[in-house]
Amino acid sequence: MTKTCIFKNLYASLLPKQTKQICQFSTATSRRYSKKNADTKLIETSVRYNGVRIQMPPNKEWSNEQFESELLRLSEGWRERGARSAFLEIPIQMSHVIPVASKYGFQYHHARGQQAVLCKWLVENEENKIPNFSNHTVGVAGACYREDSNELLVVRDKGKFSHWWKFPGGYSDLGEYIGETATREVFEETGVRSEFKSILSFRQHHGVFYDQSDLYYICRLNPLTYELSPCPHEIEDCAWKNINELLNVDNTTPFVKMICRLMQHGQEVGFNEVDISEHDLENWARPGNRMKIFHRDIESHHD
């Protein structure tokens, strides 16, 4: 199992409610229990893979001395239980205790909104297996194609990249599927409404925003409207441009030209030969939840 999978399973297993007594139960894949002390105590929750989650009670003011004493009290039991990792959640208004946690080996893991999460690997003489948080960003662009005129919808951004024609796109929001990002970004940047058909291609790039890696998907979209209304804050210009024109101009990117060639190939042999299609599937690990699976159309390749 990869470090990323372990981390996702670890956080997926966190108990949603704090309880006053220790609750223990076992399944084929996990064993969890939770414990809540009085309001003057830190809240400790044990999770899968022998991880420990520590929270600070809400509406409680802590001095550095109180926090240090309570952290040491909890840590005494971690070794006895064989705990392997600890995650310490600190609200922004309690950030003065972070240097105390650092003194005992905690390091920043991530921060979001009003909370920082620190972590510590508890197993001596063993490689730290806590993965980095969100080491990839996900961007999506829409190649919105008019079959009647053989045109693609392209934009020029404001700023230093304004000389390039490219596909409208941007970062995916939390909880948003790839196709949803593509249609949203196209509408926000150009005013054109569209429907998602497939993924055409994607690229991976390292060392981007805050040294993260980046995945960027290009989706094939069918336009539902055609009138252009470019976003005045982000877009310098937008236009429907013929594929042959885009293939023969200098002010576009190799990625755009590659997508143009894919679109031409799809027109010649059928888009089932280039599409990476979206399929809805029940999440077998979390019954009742759905997921999106992307693959080539299997049936068409057996005909």
Automatic annotation (TrEMBL):
Keyword Nucleotidyltransferase among record annotations: no
Family label: Belongs to the Nudix hydrolase family.
Domain Nudix hydrolase, chain residue ranges per copy: 135-264
Function: May contribute to the regulation of cell proliferation.
Name of protein: Nucleoside diphosphate-linked moiety X motif 6
CDD domains given in the database record: NUDIX_ASFGF2_Nudt6
A GO cellular component annotation in the UniProt record: nucleus
A Pfam family recorded for this sequence: Nudix_hydro
Protein's cellular compartments: Cytoplasm; Mitochondrion; Nucleus
Recorded GO MF terms: ADP-ribose diphosphatase activity; NAD binding; NADH pyrophosphatase activity
UniProt KW keywords: Cytoplasm, Hydrolase, Mitochondrion, Nucleus
InterPro entries: NUDIX_hydrolase-like_dom_sf, Nudix_hydrolase6-like, NUDIX_hydrolase_CS, NUDIX_hydrolase_dom, Pre-Nudix
Source organism (scientific name): Clytia hemisphaerica
Entry keyword annotation includes Disulfide bond: no
Lineage: superkingdom: Eukaryota
